[in-house]
Amino acid sequence: MTFQLTKLPYDRDALEPHISARTLDYHYGKHHKGYVDKLNQNVAGTNYEDMVLEDVVRTSFRKKDTSVYNNASQAWNHTFLWDSMKPNGGGRPTGALTGLINEQFGGLDGFHNEFKESATGQFGSGWTWLVADDDTLAIVSTPDADSPLTTDTMPLLTLDVWEHAYYLDYQNSREEYVDAFLENLINWDFAQANLEALDAQSRLSASR
User: Fold this and answer.
1) 47 with 131, same domain?
2) What CATH number did the domain enclosing 44 receive?
3) Three-state SS string across 33-49, please?
4) Whole-angstrom Cα distance, residue 61 to residue 55?
5) Pairing of strands 136-143, 154-160
């Protein structure tokens, strides 16, 4: 099986003015595509070819197949990133996510503050995630290509804090980039759908 570059869920200029089409041309068209291309080169003729991408990430992490892991994880992370943003995003969460955010962070402002602190405080390259951890939410940052897929937590949404994600639009101001994501791009519908999928999975496991 050849892994494919997933299609963006919106046009390349759809996130403007917060993320430019030029940034997506490089970020999606060069960086994301590059990870997928290198992954296909690395897994050719191996058992990884028959796995879904999530299993490639987990298995290569466990086996310490560094090159396969880095490219598989980055390919998965970027697909998750595109869905974590949407045109005219931001606003407030809905459904069960609202109560969990109020409970865990004291409200949306508290979430914004903690997410921003984590994202701007991540040294060097990496990712910041909102995850479900049992019945609670948590904000975690991971270095380089790492993600919650190799942990017991469930990712709900993410933000890429590698410089290639924001340098063309914000230069070295990661803070402005994080603000733009939280206020104008974050896709709460995607996070809520992931939470609902986790709840459904938990109910199915409990019924067995």
Assistant:
1) no
2) 1.10.287.990
3) HHHHHHHHHHHCCCHHH
4) 10
5) unpaired
Which residues, listed in sequence order, are joined to residue 130 by a DSSP beta bridge?
A: 139, 157
Domain end residue (candidates: 84, 112, 132): 84
Sheet of strand 154-160, all strands in order from the earlier edge strand to the far edge: 136-143, 126-133, 154-160
Model-level pTM greater than 0.85? yes
SS3 159: strand
State the CB neighbour count (10 A cutoff) for residue 8. Answer: 16
Paired tokens of 44 = 């050719």
Per-residue pLDDT reduced to its tens digit, 112-171: 999 999 999 999 999 999 999 888 999 999 999 999 999 999 999 999 999 999 999 999
CA distance linking residue 177 with residue 159, whole number of Å:
10
